[in-house]
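Appendix C reproduces, verbatim, an entry submitted by the partner laboratory led by Prof. M.T., so that reviewers can inspect both the input and the predicted structure.
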Amino acid sequence: MLNWTARAGCWRPPGLAALLGLEDDLVVVAEAASGPEALAMARAHRPDVAVLDLQMPGADGVSVATSLGRELPECHCMIVTGHGRPGHLKRALAVGVRGFVPKTVSAQRLAEIIRTVYAGGRYVDPELAADAISAGDSPLTAREAEVLELAADGAPIAGIAERAALSQGTVRNYLSSAVSKVGAENRHTAVRLARERGWV
């Protein structure tokens, strides 16, 4: 039997997990409401395939997939997303995610993709893949992306510096560089644009 874990409340239409449970060869072993809970459930149930929402409270699907890749390498991960931002797809593939699909996928099609991933194959939604190819790579360095992400909630320079363990001057330099590379007029716009493109 094929076991997999899914985030509760992320499916459209509602009840998709129940519909998948009707498949003869699929068993839904657990559902989770957050990234940390998904990790805990995966450790407890050791699914063959983990179906993760890209946007989960506490940790996004790519971060959870990264942890599962280290802790449970036999568990194949898939990402289900409501928005196919190119940077997210590239990050997901870089950490070994084997499936990347929109939430609009039907239960029947999702079941087929789960079987493909379980068998060692890959599946990336063609439209999401085309968007990722056309978008190009992020111009931000890892440090610039990190500092820009820390600025997302409107934190002051001093707060960002403390959280990133950097000097305030270094934080200003990283933010200035990130704003310039993204082509924004300020850091708030830069955060929005970088998120839209999946760079942070």
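The chain has ten helices and six strands. Additional entries are available on request from the coordinating office.
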